[in-house]
Amino acid sequence: MSEAPRIVLLPGDGIGPEIVAAARRLLEALGEFEFIERAMGGCSIDAHGIALTDEVLADCRDADAVLLGAVGGPKWDTTDPDAPRPEQGLLGLRKGMGLYANLRPVRPSRALVGSSPLREERITGTDLLVVRELTGGIYFGERGRSDDIAYDTCEYSVAEIERIARTGFEAAQRRAAGSGGKPRVTSVDKANVLETSRLWREVVGRIAAEYPDVELDHLLVDNAAMQLVSRPAEFDVILTENLFGDILSDESAMLTGSLGMLPSASLGADGDPGLFEPVHGSAPDIAGQGVANPLATFLSAAMMLRHGLDRPEDAERIEAAVDSVLEDGLRTPDLAAEGARAVGTDEMTEAVLAEL
Fold first, then answer.
1. What is the bridge-based pairing of β-strands 6-12 and 34-37?
2. By CB distance 3.0 to 4.6 Å, which of 5, 26, 137, 345 could disulfide with 64?
3. Which of 59, 246, 323, 346 is catalytic?
4. Are 267 and 101 in contact (CB under 8 A)?
5. Known catalytic residue: 151?
6. CB-CB contact of 199 with 158 (8 Å)
């Protein structure tokens, strides 16, 4: 890696440019980086007719890491299967960069436990990680549509399941090493109905033998959805396929009280650049108003420093600064609470910078 890591910034749509600009200020306070800003998503459709150009994909592949804001919005919503959609850029980026593993940590800040829709005693102690397979399953299978029928095909290979299973088990081991607890993986499928889920369960069970120190249990996806809201603190690592992971990770994110607080990392093979982005959407209804919550993007930058640039100390500095400003009572409108100090994007950014 070069002395100044090369980071491609993809601000995207809606509030994306605001929160990525704030994250850039944060990173600049931590050291020297080479930033390259490119268009992806709806803004790329407007400029080039497609959500992700070959040139942008090539820049991302050549980078040390990629930081994304958000894509999409009602401007580009359509049911026309031939029309370009912003989300195609994200799917193309994941596929083109070989990003097969999505990591979404869910650890509510102590200061925000009261913001959760769940009772405080139920959410307290929650610290889980969703490991979602990203490049297989129904999102990438054969699809089609005629006058009165549509279909989407879900396919998984043994190799695809093996590599994401190892990612999940190794993540559990790392988390346990940091906390002193026992590593545990909950594999989520629908093996009572789907053939792909039966293969998933078989392969995950076989790979588990390579990690004898990691406890493995299996849950059907509908049961997992219930357990996430009834006993979230009992989960460690949730390992699941693409569609189920998409749904469950958003459900688990809302345990914190706001999607505006959750980061994510999408990773491929060792040595390849990763993609780091907040879990929330583009929020076009508040774009340009200066009230967007930048904290999920800050925490995504922390994941980038930890998993993509091998700078864990800087990652910890960002996370500690975010926790500190929340403990001080600062809140953007999505986190508004009685007695809290309401701030906008710039003021929240300045507060985090001051903590650094």
1. parallel
2. 5
3. 246
4. yes
5. no
6. yes
Which CATH architecture is the domain 117-256 placed in?
A: 3-Layer(aba) Sandwich (3.40)
What percent of the chain has a predicted confidence (pLDDT) above 90?
Answer: 77
Q: Find the catalytic residue in 46, 213, 222, 285.
A: 222
Domain ranges of the chain: 1-102+261-356, 117-256
Kindly name the residue from 13, 64, 190, 236 that is annotated as catalytic.
190
CB 188 within 8 A of CB 252: no
Q: Which of 13, 64, 100, 139 is catalytic?
A: 139
**Active-site residue, 250 included:** yes
Strand partners, 273: none
DSSP state, residue 118: S
The whole model's pTM is what? 0.87
Please state whether beta strands 143-145 and 65-70 pair in parallel, antiparallel, or not at all (unpaired). Answer: unpaired
Fold of the 1-102+261-356 domain: Isopropylmalate Dehydrogenase (3.40.718)
Considering only CA atoms, give the Rg of the chain: 20
- Catalytic annotation on 272? no
Of 317, 325, 319, nearest in space to 348 by CA:
325
Which of 127, 152, 250, 346 is catalytic? The answer is 250
Is 190 in the active site?
Answer: yes
pLDDT per position as a tens digit, 143-152: 999 889 999 9
The DSSP symbol for 273 reads P
